[in-house]
From TrEMBL:
SUPFAM superfamilies tied to this protein: Carbon-nitrogen hydrolase
Chain residue ranges for the region called Disordered: 296-326
Family that this chain belongs to: Belongs to the carbon-nitrogen hydrolase superfamily. Nitrilase family.
Chain intervals with Acidic residues compositional bias: 317-326
Gene Ontology terms, MF aspect: nitrilase activity
Pfam families named in the record: CN_hydrolase (PF00795)
Name under which the protein is recorded: Aliphatic nitrilase
Cited Gene3D superfamilies: Carbon-nitrogen hydrolase
Length: 326
């Protein structure tokens, strides 16, 4: 049963660039470490398993074939042994886990966010609705069915990945579902200091506008990994900094010192009473809204590539009866 205070953890660690097995070991170890520190809600970076496709940011398309195939081979199928391992860790430690993965669905990859409830059930699998710039060479698009807030042991949880936070209607779709804790995920070790600053602004603004807590995790690359990804020192600069692992209150305040360099886990206690305190003044989907002037149309249907028409009612027509008059 949820209490008035939830302990949250945002994890900033490096993946294993050799594949999902090593990264999964890091995930399970981090869940255990955060749970040992009392965490009830744990967020990992964007597409952390097996790793974010940094290669797509520094290699031209003609050179991406081999690393793209490597990523497809190491990507996660849902469900799989990897998802079952995380589900079991969540159940055993009684924690809610938000994990970013590269999801393989037959011949396509997707940027997926998985929310595991504290009983081990997969409460949500959603896909990034629009991959950003270089990412469009790697991932397919998600759909509106994933823009969903789910009930968990710690409260109502929503999630977006990286620049989805620059889509105000995507954020508003979660806000209308009254999310209480928002999981943000970014790759980290990308672009430079300006990316770090932009993430902080975006996370604090969403917390204020939504009146919810934001738990945001960004990834990290070691110097050895950066050198492995590209030998050119100029392009290596594009894979440094850009980290802002943080936990923000509904009043827009940091609840712990954010992590912008190196590996670690940011932990903070969420006083859930602050949600009502903020929304008493400004509830952007309640008393502060003007739905007769401005509202959101949200298509929640999945977008399959194959459709079967519904069976026709009644028996097949008798061909001997002929056709009706024109």
């Amino acid at each position: 049963m949820r209490t008035d205070t939830i302990r949250a953890a945002a994890v900033q660690i490096a993946p294993d660039l050799s594949g999902r097995a090593g990264t999964m070991t890091r995930v399970l170890n981090a869940i255990a470490e955060a749970a040992d520190k009392g965490a009830e809600f744990i967020v990992f970076p964007e597409t952390f398993v097996p790793y974010y496709p940094y290669f797509s940011f520094v290699l031209p398309p003609v050179q991406q074939g081999a690393p793209h195939l490597d990523l497809m081979r190491e990507a996660v199928v849902v469900p799989s042994a990897e998802t079952r391992a995380v589900a079991e860790a969540a159940r055993r430690r009684g924690v809610v886990v938000v994990l970013g993965v590269n999801e393989r669905d037959h011949g396509s990859l997707y940027n997926a966010q998985l929310i595991f409830d504290a009983d081990g059930t997969l409460a949500l699998k959603r896909r990034k609705i629009t991959p950003t710039y270089h990412e469009r060479m790697v991932w397919g698009q998600g759909d509106g069915a994933g823009l969903k807030v789910v009930e968990t042991r710690v409260g109502r949880v929503g999630a977006l990945a990286c620049w989805e936070h620059y889509n105000p209607l995507a954020r508003y779709a979660l806000m209308t579902q009254h999310e209480e804790i928002h999981a943000g995920q970014y790759p980290g070790s990308l672009v430079g200091d300006i990316f770090r600053d932009q993430i902080e602004v975006t996370m604090r603004h969403h917390a204020l506008e939504s009146g919810c807590f934001v738990v945001n995790a960004t990834g990290w690359l070691t110097e050895a990994q950066i050198a492995e990804l590209h030998p050119d020192p100029k392009l290596q600069q594009a894979m440094r900094s850009g980290c802002m692992t943080c936990i923000i209150s509904p009043e827009g305040r940091h609840l712990a010192e954010p992590l912008t360099e190196g590996e670690g886990i940011v932990i903070a206690d969420l006083d859930m009473r602050l949600i009502a305190k903020r929304k008493r003044m400004m509830d952007s989907v309640g008393h502060y809204a003007r739905p007769e002037l401005l509202s959101l149309r949200h298509d929640t249907r999945p977008a399959p590539t194959r459709h079967e028409p519904a069976a026709m009612a009644g028996p097949d027509p008798d061909p001997e009866e002929g056709c009706p008059d024109a």
